[in-house]
C-alpha cells in the first residue's frame, strides 16, 4: 500500500517527508541520533508529531485533526530483540495478533501455523520462548509480526542482536517474506540495504539527505554518511564450493561458516582497503586474483582509490606512484578469501 508521510518533531530536530510505493521495501540508514528510530516511532504511532500528516493505503494514520492509535494502523513493528511473551508457547505468541483482531481460537492457530511455516519455524510451535536461541526467537517474532497481516511492516535493526553465524539465514528468510511487501527497515548494515531493500534513504540530523536505489546511492553518494558506506566492492553471482562465480566468469573464494549451499544467488562484498594492486599476476599467494582495467585514479590525502569499473582498491598514494598506475592500464586486483563476505540473496 502507498505510504505518504510528512512529519515534524521539533524536540527531536526531526523534519521528514517520505513516501513508499505499494510493495516497496526501503532501508533507512544514518548516523547515531539521526532520527531513524523517530521515523519508526512516528509511523508506528509511538511518537506524536507536532505537525504533519500520514496516510497508508489512503487511510489516515495521523493529521492535524486525527490520531489513529498504534494498534489500529495496520502497522507492525519488529524490534531488535524478539520480545516474545514468555508465558505463551511459540504458537500462542504468533496466534496472539489474529486473536486480538477477532479470529476464533482455531482460525488464529491455523494462521499462526501457516506463518511459522513461512519462516521455517513450525517445529518450534510448542516451545516456550525461554528455550529458543536468539535466531529462533527472531524468526518467531517475524511470524508474529506477519500474522497480524500488516499493511506496513517496520523493522528496527532486526539482525543486529544476532550472531553473525545465524544472521545470514534470517536475512534470507526476511528477503523472502519482504518480497512485494511495504516495509521500512532501519539498519546499520549496508548488506541489509543491498539484499533486502529496493531503495535506501539516508537520514542525517533529522532530515533525509539521500533517497534512491541502493546501488546509485553507493556509487554516487551525495552525503558524507553515504560516502562512508560507498565504495564497498560488490560482486553478485552464484555460489560454488569455495565461494562465488559471477556471470562474467570472475571467481571469488570466500570463507563462510557454515558453508553455503552451491548454485544459489549470492553477493560477495569486500572493502577496497582489502584489495592489493599488482602489475603482474601475483604467484604463490592464497589470494583471489582478478584481472582488471583501471578506469580511474582518485588520490585523496595519503591514499589513492584505484577504480576498475565496479571494483575499486584503496592503496597508499606512494604505492600507486611506485606502480606507475594510469587509467587504461591492465592490472591485477588481489584480495584474501578471508576478507570476502559472502551472502545469499
Ligand atoms: N525520548 C526522547 N525524547 C527526546 N528526544 C529524544 C528521545 N529519544 C531520542 N531523542 C533525540 O531525537 C533525535 C533522534 O534520535 P533517534 O533515536 O531517532 O536517532 P537514531 O537515528 O534512531 O539513532 P540510533 O542509530 O542511535 O538508534 C536525537 O537527537 C535524540 O537525542
Automatic annotation (TrEMBL):
Native organism: Arthrobacter pigmenti
Keyword field: ATP-binding, Molybdenum, Nucleotide-binding, Transport
Keyword Transport on entry: yes
Q: Which superkingdom?
A: Bacteria
Q: What is this protein called?
A: Molybdate transport system ATP-binding protein
Please give the biological process terms from Gene Ontology that the record holds. Answer: molybdate ion transport
Per UniProt, residues of the ABC transporter domain are 1-230
Source taxonomy lineage? Bacteria, Bacillati, Actinomycetota, Actinomycetes, Micrococcales
The Gene Ontology terms for molecular function here are:
ATP binding; ATP hydrolysis activity
List each copy of the Mop domain by range: 283-344
